[in-house]
Amino acid sequence: MKKKILFMLINMNVGGTEKALLNMIAEIPQEEYEITIFMLEEYGGFLNSIPDHVHIKYYNGYKDIKHILNQPPRTTVINFLKAGKVLQALNITLIHLFSSILKERTLLFKFLLKEYYENDTEYDLAVAYAGPMDFISYFVINKIKAKKKVQWVHFDVNKIGFNKKFAAKIYKKFDKIFVVSNEAKSKLTNLVPTLREKFEVFFNIVSPEIIRNQAKDGSGFKDEFNGFKILTVGRLATEKGQDLAIRALAKLINDGYKVRWYCIGEGISRKNYEKLIKDNNLEDSFILLGADTNPYPYLEQCDLYVQPSRYEGYCITLIEAKQFNKPIVTTNVNGAKEQIENGKTGLIVNIDETEIYYAVKNLIDSRNLRYQFSSNLSNEDYDNSFEMKKLFNVF
Q1: Which end of the chain is more exposed for a tag (fewer CB within 10 A), N or C?
Q2: pLDDT classification of 118: cutoffs 50, 70, 90
Q3: Does residue 217 sit in helix, strand or coil?
């Protein structure tokens, strides 16, 4: 009989967490495991990328409580009062008051999920994959039947408003807590040292064969630019640092370099970045390509990959760029030193536009250095089996 695994996350937006999940599912033997993806929302550019053999479920009640989870308590109370729902307004007021005193939101989650009842399905393993997201962690622990439960931590817990009181209370109920880099694990251990025995590093994985095949499916760059092509992949958001890239490019253009910087991704900062591009007269030089579920033709064709992030958990696009043996510049975020050997397979710089500029300038000027990095990357051995054993060992 197949073992049943459930992965729970918010949606299938085009992002590193979702891509890492799809990559991992591709490594799980179909003949041995039955997989279910359970989402809060039926949304995301990666929905159509879910393999046919994977079951898909949605929590239909999320749309009724999403606003309560995400908007300020005052707004929720006012909206209830305007709708004449005085009792609901009073309940939410009291719950938020106690949550404020307790400094964590378990009571709110319990109230919002009081109508949700577990079905009869019992899984061998249930994974709170969109971590850390407190609501999903609570849901998996309290509303999913499973013999084993795992929490995944994808992000830098020092940068995302991590609630260590909630973690100490809920995370202790998980059998295992996977963290995507050694640096991220160290930071998590500092916040909740009592749970250190549950922590284990699980690096995000990619399938080299799959992404190289996908690189053949798209056309990549269409503008026939014959200068130096730089690529960045990531949602348009402050934490991804595209503004640093724009300012670094402005310096390069001012120096007279024939270079064009392409950015694949979409997000809430697009308008801000469009203004910054215009203010620096870079409309023809910094190109926002939008979201693309298949960035691999661009990775194969670019001259240099740059990751200008302000923070990461373990950047999956760095792993992907490495599969195409591309010289890389990355900021010193979580996992960077575990993925790139500075001065040998790429350059690691501080989170600073000037340092990014000098690193990129160095690689444009030195064909030999680019060749050296690419050659060293081509000699690296990439094997997913060691990481996958960590998941299977949970059973």
Answers
A1: N
A2: confident
A3: coil
